[in-house]
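Q: How do we represent a protein-ligand complex in a form that can be generated token by token?
A: Start from the inputs.
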Amino acid sequence: MEGLFFQKERVTAHIVTPDGVRTERPIEIRTHPVTGRRCRITFSRSAEKESGTRNLPDPPPHAGRTDLCPFCRPQLEKQTPRFPNAFHPSGRMVQGSSVLFPNLFPYAAYSAVSLFDDRHFVEIGTATLPEYTDCFLNCAAYLKRIRQTDPAAVYMGIAQNHLPSAGGSLLHPHLQVHADRVAPNHHRFLARRTRHYSDATDRGIFSDLLDCERRDGSRMIGRTGGWEWLAAFAPEGFYEIWGILPGRTSLLGLDASAWEDLAQGVLNTQRLYRSLCRNGYNFGLLSVERGDSCLELRAVMMVRSNYAAWVRNDHTSFETMMGDMATFHAPEETARLAIPFWQ
Ligand SMILES: [Zn+2]
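Then emit the structure tokens for the protein with zinc ion bound:
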């Protein structure tokens, strides 16, 4: 029998503080209802102001050096690669202000970069809805073209590393688009898990998860069109937020309004992160483009370490060696902070 469980347990560390007081430090261990992975919430750190988050960091010193950036014009034309003629006759794809071209350093058989526009440094929370929508639409057009060229490349994803602290090589904002015949780990796991769940229940796991979350209410944030936004129950990143489009499994079948609604949720999340003085984040949206896929569409966003001098990395040996993400804030608090940005 498949299950969807929201498990929490608490453990307590007993310490004597430096001023001699015996005290208890609770740690909550949560198990992810979909993946079964555990994470930890170390509440005692939530009151501590992390380094580099008192204010939104200033723009980096090279924020004005558009002449050094291959994504800025006029360099774009000469310094970025093009698609082979057979894939796209004009070499690069354009949608409104967005330009999409192959990744010079591909991570998959199909790996592209989609620019929002010619703006080189865009402070978090200041992007516009049309530029995000166009960029997503350009990614969708690229994925549709892959579908026609190589129908076996079903493992598709759109992702973003905003600023180098989140993994971005270049400051200039862009989305990454990937497709491959070989499944990345998350696709591989989620394809299997959602298939087993659907076989056992005849339901979509993310639809059911949303039902549970709606009943509970403490992590629900709001809607943008058909997308429903919530704080992840067992986060694997700081201030992790999900946007679920229940019942939909294909990125290729979304219409322009669904992409615009997704863009609105991403911008709302950015404005939340800005209010928390965070400037780096990751975004991701995965699909398995098979007719029988049970993996419903779910966008994930999480804060990464600030891109500022001498800020510590958010992945410590606890994440890399013990394998549990340790965040500091309850997801219910993340939802409470996020709700105003959806109104
Ligand atoms: Zn640039």
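The helical segments are 75-79, 129-149, 185-201, 205-216, 256-275, 317-322, 331-338. The first helix runs from residue 75 to 79.
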